[in-house]
Predict the structure.
Amino acid sequence: MSYYNNIIISMLTLYFICLLFFLIPISILITYEINMLINLYYLSIKIKSEKNDIIVINLVKLYIRRRRWLFSIRLLEDSLSHNGNTNYYNYLGICYSTLQQYTIARYHYEQVLKIDPDNLMSLSGIAKLYILTNQSDKAFEAYMKILNIDPKDKSAKYNINQLMRSHNRDSRI
């Protein structure tokens, strides 16, 4: 009987040793994967933080170049809930104006102008919206404000000349 007990004990010992040789690598793999998931989670949180506005803006620029307006809008609106960066409002204005949602685009540009009245990107965007909605007088005012801030702005000068030409053409008719 003792012989069989020794065999059983040695078999159990061998079984546990083999089991440990398989379980240790598996537990290391599982620990590694859990660590990777935790790192990815913290990285996703980090992207939404204030320090990574550049990453969000670059991703939005990429979406805009690829004409993925709704992806851009979704990312920007999610980011706005975490951080009220004026660049987010400007890019939302660009996306909505491209989708011909001029009222919403103007709202986003105006949000920037409430925070920073001299923001050239918003002034330029809102001036373009005024042109698209046939509000030449308001567009002219916006371009004049741009020139007051930056007298060398060639785009504003060009657009003012275009507005004046079209106004002269319309007054002749």
Remarks:
- The two ends are 119 Å apart (CA to CA).
- The chain has a mean pLDDT of 83.
